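Reply to dn_fold:

You asked what the input looked like. This is it:
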Amino acid sequence: MTKLVHKLGLSPSLAFHDVYSLDDPSLLAFVPRPVYALLLVFPVTPTYEKARAAEDAPLSEYNTSGPEEEVIWFRQTIRNACGMMGLLHCACNGGAREMIELANLITSALPLDPTSRAHLLETSPNIAKAHASAAAGGDTAAPSAEADVDLHFVAFVKSAENNLWELDGRRKGPLNRGQLRDEEDALSENALDLGVRRFLKREEEGQGGELRFSLVALAPSMD
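and this is what came back:
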């Protein structure tokens, strides 16, 4: 993940780190701070799909762009690219946005509306090249666009206005999950309660206690 976002222009001063616990202070202490974003990976379940459809039903399609936009959101139109969408959502928002190099695809996407952003990603050779290069450097081959993949990626980011946003390219737009204090980052107790813990509690209850997920944090690099 880190190699991919670096290829897309994110500063080497940031990296993704595994989060091994949501509750154990000794394990949480391994994650460098501040944490700018969290990326949650989980299997798509009937519980998730039902909750997504119910929450999205009364919402209008998001169509905001430009300097007034609190977060930049990418609509997912490329099959099996939810991981890429999640990485972009983490890298393009909050404190990480200030650490993106100029003259690259991420910067080009910032002023565009969601439809134009989706088209940019669909046609970008830089996205395809970075994705292929990162996949070649890992242990697992990237799935084809036609493959059935049951894993999904959702980003939780803290904006400059101290709001916690849930960013998922399959939704109608970004979702504001609540206010954080200045000193609270995306891995703070309040942020976890508003975002990841709330999400996982719903999944655990809906799946009869079964819960499978992984979580990574975008934070300062340890190199």
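The beta strands are 14-18, 37-43, 151-158, 163-167, 175-179, 214-220.
Hope that clears it up.
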